[in-house]
Amino acid sequence: MGLGSDSEGFLTTRLDQFIGWARKNSLWPMPMGISCCAIEMMSFAGPRYDVARFGSEAFRFSPRQCDLMIVAGTVTYKMSHVVRKIYDQMPDPKWVIAMGACTSTGGMYRSYSVVQGIDLFLPVDVYVAGCPPRPDNLLQGLMAVQAKIKRGERPGQKEKIYIQETPDLHEKQDSRKS
Amino acid sequence: MTRTPDHAHKLTDQANLKILRALEDQDTSVTFDDALEHDMVLNMGPQHPATHGVLRLLLRLDGETIVAAVPDLGYLHRGYEKLAENMSYHEFIPHTDRLDYLSPLANNVAYVLAVEKLAGIEVPTRAQYLRVICAETARLASHLVWMGSMAMDVGAVTVLLWGFREREKLQDIWDVLTGVRFTTSFTRVGGMANDITDEAVSMIKEFLDRFPENLSESERLLIRNRIFIDRCENVGAVSREDAINLGLTGPLLRACGVGHDLRRDEPYLVYNELDFDVPVYHDGDVLARFYVRMQEMKESAAILRQALEKMPKGPVNAADPKRVLPKKERTYGKMEELIHDFMIVNFGINPPIGETYHAIEAAKGELGFYIVSHGEGYPWRLKIRSPSFANLQALPPMLRGGMISDVVAVIGSVDPVMGEADK
Amino acid sequence: MKNRILERVNARFKDSIESVSEYRGELTLVVRKSDIALLCRLLHDDPELGFDSLRDLCGADYARAADRFEVVYNLYSLKNSFRLRVKVRVDESDLHVPSVCGVWSAANWLERETYDMFGILFNGHPDLRRIYMPEEFEHHPLRKDFPLMGIPGSLSLPRK
């Protein structure tokens, strides 16, 4: 293959794309199900809004075997240490979906014990709005993570994608068509 | 990961010592010469597939046998009671949804009943029947998730998916009835947000037609299953006296032989006009609670059918313009309604000075609200008597002497919801 | 039923009862703090009254100069299907209240919760420690002088 750096770049980008394709179609979620959003996450894994068809068949509760952490539910200060510990135990590369209003900004709980947004202590990739977000909303969040992987962005990278709850804004979602 | 874990100890050493000492001080009949030789402290942490939310259990084990157990709550403490003191009665209704988040409509009904008792508002009969329908569908939804998750914890994963299939149908009904799948906030002080439509009525009837056979499909998988019965029989038993003393309510109490159901003993809404049985079993173990809840689901279906037939026509909101929110369309056109809407939303309903406690029979037990009013639009103190908090208190005696695999079955049968246990 | 309760209670605790009131069909007794455990024992053991179930125990902060706090006991009698409320006034200078854990074991966690939220100490409680807030938290959240958003720095957050 002595054709110079061009063809080497060609091979590695193809390899990266292949690995990215494999990663995005087998995102195994780590369901950090804390409160009400966890029930919608169970529906999201359930028979109607089947997430297994997206490759996320295995909802492993062990962090060592997952690459996507879906934080579903209000995170209190007491719980934040546990969430961070589990995030640290996950192997790289790992992505985080902040599901629901409580994880995005503290939600309707502007009180003394609720962390006003998990991005205060975790790098978040996708925020899914809703209280709780419909399972289809969460599926769209998962697809946004998949789009992120396809574009080759690093997890926790600065550019965040915000998913709106109203369906008619669907087209305006992704600022970069992928 | 080479990041220095400076956040690794979420509890200081002192706090850790306190909880470990509580674990050691538990009343046990087993003593050890060398404490480190036989027993082990296992942390079933807040993040666990089978703890039904963020419940942390510390177990002291002798091999596989549990010698003592200490639950640690507070991982979902969101400050509900303090929030309630800072918002008006109407503003708190969406918060009540998130208490027992498996049956949100029932919590709405409970809260609004307590506020109406305090304020002295009479609700028309149609609204009361509609509230019965809401409460019973909520009970069905909660028990379906219970059935699914308890069976999954014990090993029968199929029942989880079938339970969720039925629950999806119920959520479709809620979608048509209230506008939301899940956290509904459907009740208002003095009535309901909207009237029930014919479409919703026909959907409920269609659901009820197919429900008994769908339920028996799941039931057949479990009720004669040797493995399920062996895992559940004589596990986590509580005696009748202990159950009453510990303040257990709901299916746990009825599985111990006490026929106490607030729908029958202290009838609220229109339960005194409806005909239903209260299932009571006497063993007090996990299997008895299973039977109680399965029977309750069938009774709820019967109550729903009766409520749909008997529901009279009429208004769905009380005729009290100073305290009941007017219909939204009218506020845009009529001056009176606009002013009333403004006053109620900004200044609240101002119940007289006093205090009340009102409880309903929720899916998990007695859900009560103790409200103290100082005559303003905001409650002075609001205490939520959550059934899961009281039921979880009975965990240590239930777990003692069992094995680790029993922990999962027992927690499944207690069916705690941390949203209401931690408030 | 109400008369029977008052008769029994007045027979032994006439001096301790500070007031009796009824609102919306519910009977409330306000009792002196020192006698609460004995009164609860009477209510529990009496075969005719039979208040065998403690449904709720909570505190309340009235933000007044004297007798700032109150501890409220909501009792239920399974036999008679009757509810009773017993209240105790607690002054800020002496926050000790006798514990009723010996009468109903349901009081264990409820008293821990009241201690956590208000700082009211219960004498004779087997294991009085915080239940909702982490152990190192120094304040009592439901007091009226604690702000809703909390005090910055009182709870720790992991580093990002």
Helix count of chain B equals 19
- CATH class call of chain C: Alpha Beta
Rg over CA atoms of chain B: 23 Å
- CA-to-CA gap between the ends of chain C? 61 Å
Structural class of chain C: alpha/beta
Q: Write the H/E string of chain B, N to C.
A: HHEEEHHHHHEEHHHHHHHHEEEHHHH
Overall form of chain C? elongated
What is the CATH C-level name of chain B? Mainly Alpha
Tell me what the structure shows:
The complex is a heterotrimer of chains A (178), B (423) and C (160). Chain A is of the alpha/beta class. Chain A has helices spanning 5-24, 36-44, 77-89, 100-105, 135-151, and strands spanning 29-33, 68-72, 95-99, 126-128, 161-163. Chain A is built from 5 helices and 5 strands; from the N terminus they run αβαβαβαβαβ. In chain A, α1 runs antiparallel to α5 (135-151). Chain B has 423 residues and is mostly helical. The relative contact order of chain B is 0.17. The N and C termini of chain C lie far apart (61 Å). Chain C has 160 residues and is α/β, with parallel strands linked by helices. Chain C has one domain (2-123): 2-Layer Sandwich (Beta Polymerase, domain 2), CATH 3.30.460. In chain C, β1 and β2 (26-31) form a beta hairpin. Chains in contact: A-B, A-C, B-C. Chains B and C meet through α1, α3, α10, β6 and β7 of B and β3 and α3 of C.
Describe the protein's topology.
The complex is a heterotrimer of chains A (178), B (423) and C (160).
Chain A: H1 5-24, E1 29-33, H2 36-44, E2 68-72, H3 77-89, E3 95-99, H4 100-105, E4 126-128, H5 135-151, E5 161-163
Parallel strand pairs in A: 1-2, 2-3, 3-4, 4-5
Chain B: H1 13-25, H2 35-38, E1 39-44, E2 56-62, E3 65-72, H3 80-84, H4 93-97, H5 104-119, H6 125-154, H7 157-178, E4 187-188, E5 191-192, H8 198-223, H9 226-232, H10 240-245, H11 251-254, H12 262-265, H13 286-310, H14 328-331, H15 335-347, E6 354-361, E7 366-373, E8 381-385, H16 387-393, H17 395-399, H18 404-414, H19 418-421
Antiparallel strand pairs in B: 1-2, 2-3, 4-5, 6-7, 7-8
Helix pairs in contact in B: 5-6, 6-7, 6-13, 6-18, 7-8, 8-13, 13-18
Chain C: H1 2-13, E1 17-23, E2 26-31, H2 36-45, E3 53-61, E4 69-77, E5 82-90, E6 96-98, H3 107-118, E7 121-123
Parallel strand pairs in C: 2-5, 6-7
Antiparallel strand pairs in C: 1-2, 3-4, 4-5
